[in-house]
Amino acid sequence: MAELDHWHPVLLSHELRRKPRSVRLAGREIVVFRTSSGGLGAFTDRCPHRSMRLSEGWVEGDRLVCAYHGWRWAADGRGDIPATPAARPCARRDDVFDAVERYGAIWVKRAGAQATFPRFDAEGYVPAGVLRHRAAVPFELALDNFIEVEHTPFVHFMLGYSLDQMPQVEAQVTLSDDAVQVVNTGPKRPIPRIVEKMFRIPHDAKFVVEWTARFSPVHAIYDHSFINPRTREVVTYPLRSAVFFNPVGPESSEIYTFLFASLGRWSEFGLGSLIWPPLRVAMDLELRLDMRLLSRLADKRGILKGNVLGRFDKALVASRDRIDRIYRGQAAEATPEAGDGHEATRAARRLPLAAS
Fold first, then answer.
1. 167-225 residue pLDDT tens
2. What are the angstrom distances between the C-alpha of 128 and each of 104, 108, 113, 167, 341?
3. Which of 31, 183, 247, 329 could be a cystine partner for 54, CB 3.0 to 4.6 Å?
4. How confident is the model at residue 347 (pLDDT cuts 50, 70, 90)?
5. Which residues on adjacent β-strands are paired with residue 74?
6. CA end-to-end span of the chain, whole Å?
């Protein structure tokens, strides 16, 4: 299962204390534990001896102890047996995972896999928290929702554009071998004048939503800005986000959103701590609205055949191909073309869902 060869966030840092925790990723149950010295370990949540859930056990020193017979496992998969001291059991390599702690989360990948840890911080931004949400759809359909702005007038109060402005929104798509980049530019939706003054946003500014999707693992990085139509000056929005899409089961996924703040001149006056919390609360609400919308889909299998695709769906189709090729290591199959509202003419395929 190639999905497990990529780094995925599976727990918030504060959730992993002395007790081992079980998580689910791409249909696999994985136990994650923290050693007494602060190190991390992760295995398939099943003791190689007699299949007890290792998450039912506890940690002694640098080893995870099985609650059934007391067999003890180090993070590298080597074990010892209290009842047979001379024995040297070893877990299967496929059941051992690498684990690291970064950006306020615990990340895992299959041990020995050569995936590079994703980089998504940026100069001038500082980490400002992590949000996690559960989506009642496969992760492919969650990604579909996050990489187009056509739904934003009907779902969001802060993100995206107003309905009457959508015809004016331009979507510039740039494709590379391992990424899909989209820059959406259009009139900003109405926001309170006090907010415009706080962040020096012209009342008639253009709102720019730029995102780049990558596929090892599947995630998208978002930057927002405003453009003064007279001076062409760019006003950076004090929010950057990196959204990771984890497959959980055939009809469920987890969304981890890493938030970064750039408060600019507000930090100079010591007001950064006052400005950022409301933005974080607003982002959490916006994401909850997405989750509620996704739960209402009539068909969660992800079948594209017969769907009518529009001008904002080009990135969606391109991303599917890269999920197959990069994330799953499969040869890409034919997908419908995105057009201007006409039915797809090429052969459609069923979305490959996460293994159960």
1. 999 999 999 999 999 999 999 988 888 877 777 788 888 999 999 999 999 999 999 88
2. 9, 22, 30, 34, 39
3. 31
4. very low
5. 63
6. 11
* Share in percent of the chain as helix, strand, coil (round to 5): 20, 35, 45
85 preceded by a cis bond (ω within 30 of 0):
no
Q: Which residue bears the tokens 């099985």?
A: 66
Question: Amino acid letter at 255?
Answer: I
Smallest CA-to-CA distance from 182 within 174, 194, 190 is with: 174
Q: Which domain holds residue 33?
A: 2-110
Secondary element (H or E) of residue 133: strand 126-135
Q: Say if residues 267 and 274 touch (Cβ distance below 8 Å).
A: no
> Given pLDDT bands bounded at 50, 70 and 90, which one contains residue 105?
very high
- Predicted local distance difference test score (pLDDT) of residue 350: 36
Domain boundary among 266, 295, 324: 295
Model-level pTM?
0.90
Instruction: Find tokens 């504060």 and name the residue.
Output: 14
141/65 same-domain check: no
Distance CA 7, CA 105 (A): 12
Interhelix angle 272-295/139-146, rounded to 10 degrees, is: 120
Handedness of CA 31, 32, 37, 39 (dihedral sign): positive
Same domain, 175 and 214: yes
**CA 202 vs CA 191, 224, 271: distances in Å:** 11, 15, 22
Dist CA 220 CA 82 (whole Å): 47
Q: Does the pLDDT of residue 279 top 90, yes or no?
A: no
Query: Could you say which of 110, 140, 161 is where a domain stops?
Result: 110
Q: In this structure, what CATH number is given to the domain that contains residue 263?
A: 3.90.380.10
Position 220: which residue type?
A
CA dihedral 6→11→12→17, nearest 10 degrees, is: -130
**Per-residue pLDDT band at 303 (split at 50, 70, 90):** low
253, 247 Cβ separation under 8 angstroms: yes
Sequence-ordered list of residues with C-beta below 8 angstroms from that of 128, at least 6 positions apart, any chain: 259, 260, 261, 276, 280
Q: What pLDDT score was predicted for residue 353? A: 36
